[in-house]
Automatic annotation (TrEMBL), chain A:
SMART domains in the record: AAA
Organism of provenance: Marinibacterium profundimaris
Full protein name: ABC transporter ATPase
Species lineage: Bacteria, Pseudomonadati, Pseudomonadota, Alphaproteobacteria, Rhodobacterales
Pfam families: ABC_tran (PF00005)
Domain ABC transporter residue range list: 2-229
Record carries keyword Nucleotidyltransferase: no
TrEMBL record, chain B:
Record field: transmembrane: 53-80, 92-113, 119-138, 182-202, 214-233
Location relative to the cell: Cell membrane
Name under which the protein is recorded: ABC transporter permease
Membrane topology: Multi-pass membrane protein
Highest taxon listed in the record's lineage: Bacteria
Coiled-coil portions: none
Family: Belongs to the binding-protein-dependent transport system permease family.
PROSITE patterns: ABC_TM1
Length: 241, 243
């Protein structure tokens, strides 16, 4: 893996004539976990799609990209809200999808190792429909790790999970994605309070930075510092437009 | 078990209504023979009917195989290439404006009285439903999967083969289910226009000799043939793709 770059964006986005977000400025430092917190419809997924190279429908006026100036293509992995598993492939084949799609050699042993990290070694030969929602999202995490990209974009990947599976996924992801540049779009203040080394609050007013507690991520969910930060984030959201 | 029971009851009801119609309306046997007479004709001509049914079955199966293969390849080509789509789609749609039946004499002229003119009819009649069902499914791949593939830097041909085609196989299966019911129509029309074998030929022959009971016997065998094929294809699709 190449060293993770910082991400920056400055400008405004439209789809057709409809303004989506901005003008605003965003910086995500290299090798850190940045949470982009905001209400639905504020354009945070669109912003993420730009970095993923998917914003074909978006007219963006401004600049965005990697801090090292090199193109982002080929350095980005994406984990979306849905697990996007292929129902006709077993877990191992889903995890190694990227290699097959590129016509590269499939590193099966590495895939099995990663499945072991996410606690799914016993399920390697199962089909997605035999797994629970939490397990499926862990397969999606394994697939993301298998790509081994320095930049990881997360688009509300845990929002469909129940509270307990979500907390576990947060711990697991924070552990396994540490050291990469993570841009994590979420509307969940508790999630941002636990995971964000940098927390950016995106509202109709624009982008503002919140000051997270100094505890290491993933922060304990019931620690007073985490809870206070969670409250502060919600207040910031409520007081914005 | 209940399904088999229902099917048996439905068959019995149909046979009884048939007999009742013949008896009550006092229909002569050269207009509509009763089920008993038809069963008799079926039994006494079993070898003859079996020979002709085998020919029709071969025509249908070969037409089905070739037509589905051609439809499979065409749909992928159309889905993969916008150029192919814009050139070929108007032609495909126009070709549907010509009734396939109208082509039967021409096909007989070109391919002769044997197997191939019937295979061509069956092929032509199923090609469009298979192609369009599969093509539609290929164009409806979940956007999330395509985006994931893009972020993974997958070339289009590999996205087609590893994602779009497998995701669209249930659509191909529904095209195939339609095809299996249409294919015998093509084969029979082909046989009517010019043949020396097959159930369609046998029906015309029986009709010409006023053997109406034999005609109905052939018709029933044709129906059973189609139903069996449909059940087989259905089971195959379920087993392969769970759809």
């Amino acid at each position: 893996m190449t060293p993770p770059p910082a991400l920056h964006l400055s400008g405004q986005a439209k789809i057709g004539d409809t303004p989506i977000f901005g003008p605003l400025v965003m910086e995500a430092p290299a090798g850190q976990w940045t949470c982009l917190l905001g209400p639905s419809g504020v354009g945070k997924s669109t912003l993420l799609r730009l970095f993923a190279g998917l914003g074909d429908e978006v007219t963006f006026e401004g600049t965005f990209g990697a801090g090292d100036g090199a193109p982002l293509e080929g350095r980005v992995a994406l984990m979306a809200q849905g697990d996007l598993l292929m129902p006709w492939l077993d877990v191992t084949a889903n995890v190694t999808l990227g290699a097959r799609l590129r016509g590269a050699e499939v590193a099966r042993d590495r895939a099995l190792g990663i499945l072991d990290w996410v606690g799914l070694s016993d399920h390697a030969a199962k089909r997605p429909d035999e797994l629970s929602g939490g397990q499926r999202q862990r397969v999606a995490l394994a697939r993301t790790l298998m790509e081994d990209r320095p930049v990881v974009l997360l688009d509300e990947p845990f929002s469909a999970l129940d509270a307990r599976s979500r907390a576990r996924m947060q711990d697991l992801s924070a552990e396994l994605l540490a050291g990469r540049t993570v841009l994590h779009v979420t509307h969940d203040v508790a999630e941002a309070a636990r995971l964000g080394q940098v927390v950016l609050v995106m509202t109709g007013d624009g982008m503002s930075m919140a000051e997270p507690p100094c505890a290491q991520v993933p922060r304990t969910y019931d620690a007073p510092g985490t809870l206070a930060f969670q409250g502060a984030l919600l207040r910031q959201l409520m007081e914005a437009q | 078990m209940t399904r088999a029971l229902h099917a048996a009851a439905a068959t019995l009801l149909a046979v009884l209504s048939w007999q009742a119609l013949v008896t009550l309306a006092d229909l002569p046997r050269f207009i509509l023979p009763g089920p008993g007479l038809v069963a008799q004709a079926l039994w006494s001509n079993r070898a003859l009917i079996a020979d002709h049914a085998l020919i029709t079955a071969i025509e249908v199966l070969v037409g089905l195989g070739l037509g589905s293969a051609l439809g499979f390849v065409s749909a992928i080509l159309l889905a993969a290439s916008p150029l192919a789509l814009s050139l070929l789609r108007p032609m495909l749609v126009f070709s549907q404006a010509i009734p396939v039946f109208a082509l039967a004499p021409i096909l007989t002229l070109w391919l002769g009285y044997g197997l191939w003119s019937k295979v061509a009819m069956a092929l032509l009649i199923i090609y469009f439903p298979v192609t369009s069902a599969f093509f539609d499914a290929l164009m409806r791949t979940a956007p999330g999967w395509l985006e994931l593939a893009r972020v993974m830097n997958a070339p289009p041909a590999r996205v087609m083969w590893h994602i779009r085609v497998p995701a669209a196989l249930p659509g191909f299966a529904s095209g195939l289910r339609l095809a299996v019911v249409y294919a015998p129509i093509g084969a029979i029309i082909g046989e009517w226009v010019g043949a020396s074998q097959g159930l369609g030929y046998l029906m015309l022959l029986a009709n010409g000799r006023a053997k109406i009971d034999l005609m109905f016997a052939a018709l029933i065998v044709l129906g059973i043939l189609t139903l069996t094929l449909h059940a087989a294809v259905d089971a195959l699709c379920r087993r392969l793709w769970g759809a």
